[in-house]
Amino acid sequence: MKELSLNILDIAENSTSAGATLVGISLEEDSKGILCMTITDNGRGMSQEVLKGVQDPFYTTRKTRKVGLGIPLLKLAAEQTGGRVEIESTQDEKMHGTTVRAYFDTGHIDFCPVGDVISTMITLISGHPDVDFEFNDISPRRHVSLDTRELRQVLGDVSLAEYEVLGWIREYLAGQYAQGTGGAG
Amino acid sequence: MISLAELAAIREKMKDKVAVREGSAQTRVVVGMATCGIAAGARPVLSAFVEGVNKEGLAEKVAVTQTGCIGICQYEPVVEVFEDGKEKVTYVKLTPEKAERIIKEHLVGGNVVTEYTIGANG
Questions:
Q1: Average pLDDT rounded to a whole number, residues A68-75
Q2: Fewer CB in a 10 Å sphere around the end CB: N or C, chain A?
Q3: How far is A28 from chain B (nearest CA, A)?
Q4: Do B47 and A123 lie within an 8 Å CB cutoff?
């Protein structure tokens, strides 16, 4: 993957495949340059056996081919900066879901840039307009946020996947990044 | 900065159109968006199709959607075009530039861009 925003897209696609109705995506960078990327969902979760397997590059749930590379690629990107990946998952009836957390040292020479996270959010929302996404990008310099549940309240029956709506979301996020601070608008 | 007020305005504009569009697409453009596709550049290809279809005024006729791994990872980014009454067309190793040509020649003009199909690249 050329940029971390593509890893985010990839991991979040797994969340939607797991039947999640809400996916949280957050980037939190502290003053020391340690970036914590979290993708958390309320999907069906994984068994302990599957959870062990997903970090192995030769593991996949698909029957057609036997290689699943999403988590190993994320792990590689994190570990090459001295960071790590943690995955928690539960299939508990009331509390099911999965959380993938990756830590990166942004000052490390092998840190892969975050890249175009706005396009990742647009791609996720346009592909899964019935799933809610809560996005936060927080660092000492900025706080960018988006919650599709808020947008849905404004939109009523109009789909989040409408071209004009996606254009609004792109501009809304770009505006927050330009300002360096967040806000509900 | 753009605000929720502009979003509300979009809603006002769109709310009457919603019923017309749902399920009325005659053509489906399906972009593979699994690990293989994403790593190969499917995200900008998808954006190019969404932008192009809307700019060409095809939004009522063409639906751009996403799917998982299509099973030919070495040919990613892969896009399948399904048209009513026609055989499926599989485009391979796409870029945003190739997507623009497919929009103009295939989706608008009705002519398959043969050189980008899997048949010409297999």
A1: 87
A2: C
A3: 23
A4: yes
